[in-house]
Every structure is written in structure tokens, then in C-alpha cells.
Amino acid sequence: MLRFGWIALLLAAASVHVCAGSADALALQQRLIDVFEQNKDAVVRVKAAYRGPDEGGKAQVMLRVGTGFFISREGHVLVSASRAAGADRVWVEYKGKPYATESVGHDRLTNVSVLRVLELPADFSIISMDSNVTQPRLGAIAIAIACPLDFEPSPSMGLVTGMDKKLGNKVFPTEYIRTSISVDAGQGGCPILDMNGQFLGMSVASITELNASYCLPVAALVRVRDDLLFSGHIIHSWMGFEVGELLGTDSENAVYLSSVVEGAPADQAGLMKGDHLVSIAGHAIHNVSDVPGAVFFTRANQFTSITVKRGDDLLEFSLKTLPRPEQMPIVEAMEVESQEPVEPPPVVEEAVTPVDEAKAPAAVDDSKKAPRRT
User: Fold this and answer.
1) What is the pLDDT of residues 34-43, one digit of tens each?
2) Which CATH architecture describes the domain 237-323?
3) Does pTM top 0.85 for this prediction?
4) Bridge partners of 7?
5) Which residues are within 8 A (CB) of 160 and not within 5 positions of it... i.e. 6 or more apart?
6) Distance from C-alpha of 88 to C-alpha of 368, rounded to nearest angstrom
7) Are 177 and 192 in contact (CB under 8 A)?
């Protein structure tokens, strides 16, 4: 009889555990639904028309499609620059209705554009951008709301799988969030949120070999948005040095100044070729990929602190940055002391999808196909 009592007790405990697990799953499901419902009315489909080469005396119109989202009550919309930059005409579709837009600014480096909708919908929501949001942990759930193909805003779920400053030999302008969310088929430019509905960032590139994507974090996105709203382009700061990295060494300060431009802010502040970087504006420099991210958040025409190691001395300098000249690299030189074979990196493509047909405003020929961008 005692044996049957123990069996009954174990069955009851297992039943409670199963019920608890089921309740947790339902709670997670409801949370996903809530985040989607609270943000779906901020998401729009973006369509951009490009005039192609004439064929047989008739102009060809190419179409690119993506996703965007409202960020202000004045009708500002964030979209991928791979859609909007250079287009002859860009419009958004919200709840099945097209709305004309005007360009505010583009930044091809981060693949971000700001548009303004000329005639606002009667009712729409916005996605708030808080640059103080805590960085997501690896394994955290990420939620995307996008307009795939010709569908209305739809949710998809994935995981935060990395925080990357480079891919292969390509160094990013700042640290990107890698997620397991695919952003092909017109989903590029969509917002990414966490389980609390906090905005994490905007999808800016697709990693095709991993069926994954990169997201520009909200702090960097705020930096880009502010400059685009202010001047129509991002004003990158310039200090006037290039950096290299010593590989095959245990030194904590392997990144050094490979050259200093004469008369540039770095030169005027007293920095010298061969100085080893310790920090820029409080951001520690451990390897060469740390440099662009640290410089990214500095502002032109403002003072920035730089700490270097010169011999056995730790020195701190204050320099006033300038707007970066065109085609002036921040990271160019890399000195390699030991070399090993390197596998080719995964292909990273901007999320651009060909579209067979799309209904466009009257001035746009909607009968043509858009090529896949490579």
C-alpha cells in the first residue's frame, strides 16, 4: 500500500510540473502576441522606384521593396538606405494604402535612411528609441515585425546570437547585434524588439549563409537619426590617424598609431606615430576592430579624450575632432607578425528582394521587375 502511495505522489508531482511548463509556454506566447500588437501599427512597407536603362525606346522602372517604421508623430520613417538612397521615388504602404514621402537623409555606411511621409495616416503608432536600453544578452529572445513579400506586418522570433565588430576582414563602423532572424523577402529595415517590447535596433544586413541578420543597435541608430534629421547626412568625426595591430603578441595594447596626419587634430594634440592606443572617449581599445566603434560615437568639432601608452608612460590627450574628409580611412594599416590561412568569411548582403509586381502611385510604372542587388 505504501508503494502505491509513493507512485501516486510522483504522478501528482509530474502533473504539476507539466502544468507549470504549459503555463510558462502560454505566458511566453501571450507576451509575444502583446509585443506584436503594441508595435504593429508603426510598421510600413517601403517601395522605391529606380529608372533603369532604356530598352527599345521605353524607360525601364526597377522596384525595391523593404520594411520601415514610424519614429515620430511628424511622420518620420526609418528605412534601409539600400532601398531609399538614390531612388527616383519612394513611398510607403500602410494598411494597404500608399503614402508619398520625401527624403530627409541617407547614410550608406550604416544602411539607414530617414524619410518623411507627406500626408499622414489617420491613425498610426511610433516606435520609441531609448539609447539607454541595456545591451541584450546572448541567447535573449528577439522579435522582428516586418512586411515579407506582399503580406501585412508579421512577427517573427529569433535569438540574439552575437555582438560583432567585424566579419572576416570587414570591420564594421560600430558593434552590430547578430540575430537568428532572417530578413530576406522584403523584411530588411524592420524593427527588432525584446520580450519587454523595448526597441533593440533596426535590421540592416542579411547574413545569407547563416539565414540570419545584423541589427544596428538603438544607441548607434539614435546617433545616425539625429545627424540625418539635422543635416541630411551623418557627420563622422575625424582625428587624423591610422592604426595597425600587432598580432602574435600577448600585449594588451597591441593597437598602435601607424601614421599621424600632419596638422590633423591628433598631430596638434601631441599624438605620435607608434603610440599604443589604450582608450578613445572612455572606450577601451583591445584590438583594431574596437577603434571604429569608439570613434563612431564621438562628435565632430567636440573635444575627445585619448589615452595612449608611449614606452612605459601612460599619457592622456584631449583633442578637438573635425568633420571627416571624404574617403579618409579610420582603420587602414594592419601589421601582421604571424600569418595563418584564413577561410573566406560568410557572405553578407543587404536585405534586398526582387519583386515581381507592385501597385505603385500613378507616376510609377509598376509592371517591371527589380534585380537582386549584389
Assistant:
1) 999 999 999 9
2) Roll (2.30)
3) no
4) none
5) 136, 137, 138, 139, 140, 141, 142, 177, 178, 179
6) 15
7) yes
Q: How far is CA 282 from CA 31, 277, 290, 291, 294, in A?
A: 37, 11, 12, 12, 8
Backbone torsions φ then ψ of 23, nearest 5 degrees: -65, -40
CA atoms within 13 A on the CB side of 163: 12
Rounded Cα distance between 165 and 81, Å, is 20
Cα–Cα distance, 188 to 146 (Å, whole number):
8
CA 221 – CA 231 distance, rounded (Å):
15
User: Where are the CATH 2.40.10.10 domain residues in the chain?
Assistant: 141-233
CATH topology of domain 141-233: Thrombin, subunit H (2.40.10)
- Residue 180 CA, chain-centre distance (Å), reads 14
Task: Find out whether 207 and 348 touch, Cβ atoms under 8 Å.
Answer: yes
* Cβ–Cβ < 8 Å for 131, 222: yes
The model's pLDDT over 129-179, given as tens digits with 9 standing for 90+, comes to 998 888 899 999 999 999 998 899 999 999 999 999 988 888 888 999 999
